[in-house]
Structures are given as structure tokens and as C-alpha cells.
Amino acid sequence: MKKTHAFAGLVLSTALLGAGLANAFAADETLRSLADKNGIYIGAILNSQWFSGGLPGNYEQIHKQQFNIVVAENEMKFDATEPQEGRFNYNNGDKMVKYAKQNGMRVRGHALAWHSQVPGWVNNYKNDKKKLLAVLKNHIEKVVSHWKGQVAEWDVVNEAISNNEPQWRTGSVWYQGIGPEFIDSAFVWTHAVDPDAELCYNDYNLEQGINPKAKAGFLLEQVKRWVANGIPIHCVGSQTHVEDTTTDKHFIGSPDSLRSLAKELAKLNVKLKITELDIGFKSGINVSQRDLQRQGQTFRQYLDIILEEPNADTYLIWGVSDKWSWLGGLNRQKGLIYDDNLKPKPAFDSILVRLQTYEPPKDTAKKDTVVQDSSKKDSTKKDTTDAIKPFIAPSSLSLHVAGRTLFVTGFTSKTAKVDIFDMQGRPVFSTENNKGVFDLTTIAEGLYVVRVQSGFSNLTQKVSIK
Ligand code: XIL
User: Domains in the chain and their CATH numbers?
Assistant: First the structure.
């Protein structure tokens, strides 16, 4: 490892002297070929302008040469896919899926349940819980089944946590109309339609610590609950829209904080992905070459998390060139890895060198679970990670519900303890006996999570009580 770092340092100081780093390595080495070698996904959005043919040819050339995963900037969002109630438009999304297939890229779907970019007609139902549930369920079912087997991972829920204090984002139309159970339901519905897709919760400001006062701390508690309840969540997407350290006076985010989130998620068998990275400078300031080099270092530090943490596999940048970037609206500039003329910036070099010099420790688990060479196989297909499998503890226990009776078999210890939770994780029933037969007449109709414990074995399963 030491040798690796020394080498990277040497090469980087060459860059400071002005030598084009991209030329220092074999010409055919791209971010993509090196990402393949390292067993990770590296990508950038397809900007909205691409869909209407409004970008120069070398944009697409660069995009397919350098990246092995793709996501649409706006084209798979709710307002794009269901602009009018019940009328779906998949044209642009299809265009991207075709492009990904032709170029052997993995497809990320963004985003199913989000408070933003929701068409006006949804708001007509804002006080009608039943209708809103039906609207969201129908939207998810139609969109996910349309791209089933083609979209390898979905942002099922985007930005559901408030930015100011750790609690749900209460202003969201879904939260107001349905309550927090829209989140659990969205995951369950998506999984039911495409059990092979990886399902993520995606949000920003997750690089600001994991203490309970921080957004990631609140999220972590929710992920624990989802996992305990068998809600099919497989990944957390950290958008990672951050500002350069020297101009952000309130800077509290850091790659180290994000790494600690990755480590906590690993304990829950949940992945961390960086899904929307940009590292902008304040608009209007003069950005020097030195600033761009520091920016490159920060890009590299975030990449290190993806390379080094076994449960992290994706590094996605929210744009290709500074010329087509949403950052202006955030009062930021120059946050990407290609400049206005589509020339690679120091950040590109920094990423390239890191991928070039990284030496994985022996026996890393992740290398088997992600694509090895995306150009040689259809990487839009799901990799080997099994949905919800990790959350079911191995045991001989089994359970089934018949009418209002729960039967538990296969318990080896004297008794079996049964706990039943509603979909929000609230306990509704708890008892223990040695017969394995439990009367459920006191429980209202609905979807529940049953947990059975007996000795060291336990089993968690969703059941519908009718
Ligand atoms: C942004 C797009 O880049 C813009 O073109 C659009 O006007 C607004 O949305 N978090 C997300 C992304 O999850 O969908 C957002 O994308 C950026 C912030």
C-alpha cells in the first residue's frame, strides 16, 4: 500500500508541474477500463440536452468511453414518465436504456417516490390518502415493470428526510397525504415488481456525520428498522453535492464522515453508493489551477471510499462538463471533471491515477459481486447480490398464517416467541408459547412483519392478515 501511495504522490507532483497526466498512461486506459478492473461502477448522468440531440458529438464519445454506468438527469422522474394521470411516456428513458445496452453500461433508475418534479395533477389528490396510495403504487408498478430487467437499480425513495432537523420531510406531497408509510410501501411495491433490482434510498447531505442530529444519523436508524422489518432496501445513495472546502464557510461535510456511514451500513448488509457527485466552487469567484487541483484531491478522497469499502461499488458524477451542469442554480460553478470545452480537468487526472494505482487488499468480497468487464457482458443485468436474502437468518424455523392462526414449526428450543410489527415498525403483538400455534384474532387486517425467535434461531417474514 505504501508503495502505491508514494507512486501516486510522485505522479501527482508531475501534474503540478503542468504535465498532462492523462498522457502518462497507456492511451487506451480510460476511467471505465480501470473501473472494470477494480470491480466498481463509474459513471455520469446523461444530461437532459443529450436526449434532444443538443450536445456535440464528442460528449457522447467521452461518455461511452469513460463510463460503465448511466443515469438520466431528469427523464425517468415522475413528471417525465407520467405527465398526465395514467398516461405514461417512456420514450426518453427507452432511448437511454438502448444506448446503455449498445455500449454495455449498467442503468440506474432515478427516481420513483420524490417530492420534487411531481406533475401538477398529483397535487389534486393531496388530501386523499387512498387515492395517493393508489397513484404511487400504480406509478411504481407501471414504470418498474416497463424497465424490468433493464434498470439494474432504482432510487425508490429520494430526499424524504428534512434538511434542517433530523425528521421526515413533512412538506412532501407523499408524506402529507399518506404519512411515512409511503416509504416502506414504495420499497415493497418496487421489489414485488422487480425482485432482481437493487433498491436504494437516496439523499443529500449524508456526508455530514452519523450522529443522531445529522441527516445520516436519522437515516441510519430508519435503515436499521427497515432491515429488521424485512423491507427490501439494498443500498443508500449519497448524492454528495458538496462545495469546495475553502469557499464553503459552513463546511461540515467530509469524505471521512461518508466513510463512517458506509461502515455502519455494512453492518446491516446495505451498500453505499455515491450517486450524484459534484464538488462546486461558489459562483463568481475566480477559480485557480491550484483550486482545481485541490478539487481533484477531494474527488479522489470520495473515490477511495468506493474502492476501499467492501459494501461500496458506485461512483456517479452529476454531469460530464461544467458547461452543462445544474450547479448554477445552487450558486456554484465548475463542479465536474471536464471543463467547458470537454477537456479533462485535474479532477479527471486525479481519478484516473487513483484507479491506476489502487491495489486492492487480497480477498475483497466486493470484487465478486460487481461487473468485471462491462464492455463484454450485458451489465444492465443485476449482479450476484441477492435481494433481501441477507436479512433472513439461517434457521429451520418456518411460519405460515391460515385464517387468523399463525403456525410456527421447526423450533428446537422449548418455546417460540412471536413478535408482530406493523409496517412502521410499531409492535402490535408479542407472545411466547411451546405449541407453535398463535391466535391472531386481535390484530386488524393488513400487512405486518412477523418475527419468530427460538433459542438462537430467528425468522422474520412479511405476512398479510385478512
Ligand atoms: C436536478 C437536475 O440536474 C436539473 O436539471 C433539474 O432541473 C432539477 O433536478 N437531487 C436529485 C436530482 O436527486 O434529481 C437533481 O437533479 C439534483 C439534486
Answer: 14-357 (3.20.20.80), 385-465 (2.60.40.3080)
